[in-house]
Amino acid sequence: YPDGTSVGLVWAPLYPTSHYHALIATIEGDDSDGGIEALVRKVMKNGVANSAMYQSLRQCQNVEAGNGYLVTILNYDGYGMVSSVESATGNITNFGYDCLGRLVRIGDRFDRVAKLFNYNFSR
């Protein structure tokens, strides 16, 4: 960013045999000391996007906020669709999809509907 803020991206395969990598998290902050790169490497050592990686990210989210880093975590469902986003401030947004993979619902941390989407077919 123009203000000197850096963003580290954490990419990982969703499944052990997958060649498809998904964005798992972003880490924002001042990287003049290489801290963001170190955090990304620490989290990435877990390899596949599994519970150990998410646990490591949540620890970073809690601990690193005091160090000026903002960690946002993306969670995926079994089809590789973003199911929720946990912001650096603790807000959680949930997403729902129809059988064709189209976004149909956005909800809050309690899964209360904030926005619904409808799709019309024409022939």
Explained architecture:
With 123 residues, the chain is α+β, with helices and mostly antiparallel strands. It has helices spanning 35-44, 51-64; strands at 5-13, 21-30, 70-76, 82-86, 92-97, 103-107, 113-116. The protein is built from two helices and seven strands.
Task: Summarize the helices and strands and which ones pair or pack.
Blueprint: E1 5-13, E2 21-30, H1 35-44, H2 51-64, E3 70-76, E4 82-86, E5 92-97, E6 103-107, E7 113-116
Antiparallel strand pairs: 1-2, 2-3, 3-4, 4-5, 5-6, 6-7
List keywords for this structure.
2 helices, seven-stranded antiparallel sheet, alpha+beta, about 35% strand, about 20% helix, globular, about 120 residues
In short:
The protein is of the alpha+beta class and 123 residues long.
How would you sum up the major sheet? 7 strands, antiparallel
What form results from the Cα inertia axes?
Answer: globular
Give me the Rg, rounded.
16 Å
Figure out the total of helices.
Answer: 2
Helix content: 10-25%
Distance between the termini: 46 Å
Widest sheet, order of strands = 1-2-3-4-5-6-7
Mean pLDDT: 80
Strand tally is: 7
Percentage of β-strand residues: 35-45%
What oligomerization state is this entry in?
Answer: single chain
Are there runs of 5+ residues with pLDDT below 50, and where? none
**Order of SSEs:** EEHHEEEEE
Q: By helix and strand content, what is the structural category?
A: alpha+beta
